């Protein structure tokens, strides 16, 4: 069994909770209060800034150019995600540069990114990539499942482009390359290592759930 299949089996216990999270369901039916989305965009923008730096931390552990090229490609694609989704949204929402610079990450946001950075710094390339996986994979999952269930989500005037970004071919490709790389690197790991990686992944699943909770609770308050 591939490591990604084992990880998916773990995620199946948690990911369905994202699909019925009020932040997600209200984005899907267009009823999410804009202030909540605004808060989310700002926090998520800060989150992704840390996330790309974790790729940079992993690059320092890589010892061949092919690996470095892969990692820097994923890093660049994540920056692409912010240019495709966050920056246009922030413009539309009237968020200024000053506001971006004066926004502080919520402690749940910091807890998540600092945890990932710590695992990436103390572990090897595979550990680092598994740490980053839930972020990438769960968004592809959420967008795909929601759009399957309610295709109108894509046409919502406020939140349609959020779904469009995460069901896009380019996002799916970047995510699939990450999964494939993790499977390639984990061909010969022992049970104990596999279990350790599963625990990291599961923790990140819960951090993402907490992120949805946090932006839903904080936005507009
Ligand atoms: C909190 C969070 N998790 C995952 C993603 C997917 O990139 C994101 N943008 N933000």
Automatic annotation (TrEMBL):
This enzyme's EC code(s): 3.5.99.2
Record has Cytoplasm as a keyword: no
GO CC, one annotated term: cytosol
Top-rank taxon: Bacteria
Pathway involvement of the protein, from the record: Cofactor biosynthesis; thiamine diphosphate biosynthesis
Main enzyme class: hydrolase
Record field: catalytic activity: thiamine + H2O = 5-(2-hydroxyethyl)-4-methylthiazole + 4-amino-5-hydroxymethyl-2-methylpyrimidine + H(+); 4-amino-5-aminomethyl-2-methylpyrimidine + H2O = 4-amino-5-hydroxymethyl-2-methylpyrimidine + NH4(+)
Sample GO molecular function, one term: thiaminase activity
Pfam families documented for this protein: TENA_THI-4 (PF03070)
Span of domain Thiaminase-2/PQQC: 9-217
CDD domains linked: TenA_C_HP1287-like
GO BP of this protein: thiamine biosynthetic process
Keywords: Thiamine biosynthesis
Binding partners and assembly: Homotetramer.
Family per similarity comment: Belongs to the TenA family.
Protein name in the entry: Aminopyrimidine aminohydrolase
Organism the protein comes from: Dysosmobacter segnis
């Amino acid at each position: 069994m591939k490591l990604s299949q084992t990880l998916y089996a773990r995620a199946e216990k948690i990911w369905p909770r994202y699909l019925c999270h009020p932040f997600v369901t209200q984005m899907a039916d267009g009823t999410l209060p804009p202030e909540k989305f605004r808060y989310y965009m700002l926090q998520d923008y800060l989150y992704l800034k840390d996330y790309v730096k974790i790729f940079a931390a992993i690059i320092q552990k890589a010892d061949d150019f092919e690996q470095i090229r892969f990692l820097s490609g994923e890093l660049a694609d994540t920056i692409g995600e912010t240019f495709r989704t966050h920056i246009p949204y922030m413009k539309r929402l009237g968020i200024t540069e000053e506001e971006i610079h004066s926004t502080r990450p919520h402690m749940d946001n910091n807890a998540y990114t600092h945890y990932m950075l710590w695992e990436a710094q103390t572990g090897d390339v595979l550990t680092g990539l598994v740490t980053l996986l839930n972020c990438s994979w769960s968004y592809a999952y959420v967008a795909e499942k929601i759009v399957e269930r309610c295709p109108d989500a894509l046409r919502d005037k406020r939140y349609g482009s959020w779904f469009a970004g995460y069901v896009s071919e380019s996002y799916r490709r970047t995510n699939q390359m990450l999964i494939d790389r993790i499977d390639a690197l984990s061909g010969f790991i022992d049970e104990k290592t596999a279990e350790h990686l599963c625990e990291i992944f599961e923790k990140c699943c819960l951090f993402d759930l907490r992120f949805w909770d946090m932006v839903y609770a904080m936005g507009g308050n």
